[in-house]
Amino acid sequence: NLPLLYDHAKKDWRTAVEAASTPLLLVTANQSPYFDGRFAEVMAAANPKYVSHQAVDQSGHVVMAEQSGTFNKLMMEFLKEH
Questions:
Q1: Which residues contact 47 (CB under 8 A, 6 or more apart)?
Q2: What span, in angstroms and rounded, lies between the C-alpha atoms of 18 and 43?
Q3: 29 burial class (0-12, 13-18, 19+ CB within 10 angstroms)?
Q4: Confidence (pTM)
């Protein structure tokens, strides 16, 4: 799976997010050592009809593992709404 990870990391996903026509949830970690989660606010503002953002505190990069309860709650709420 390493080639897939490298390919994903090199991609610029901004145009895909801006053009999304189905609901998209961006979940970011406030303490990620890799990404500044504020980028998700910019992306959500670029496509407010379909893109929403939730920031999770007390989490590094892997929100679904580090804050699994919070992540699952956010995901379930999103899925129920859409």
A1: 17, 18, 19, 20, 24
A2: 7
A3: buried
A4: 0.85
**For the segment 10-65, what is each residue's pLDDT rounded down to a tens digit?**
999 899 999 999 999 999 999 999 889 899 999 999 999 999 999 999 999 899 99
Name the token pair of 18: 């801006």
HSE (side-chain half, CA atoms, 13 Å) at 3: 0
CB 74 within 8 A of CB 68: no
For 1-82, strand residue ranges (E) read: 24-29, 51-56
Q: Which amino acid is at 7?
A: D
Side chain identity, residue 49:
K
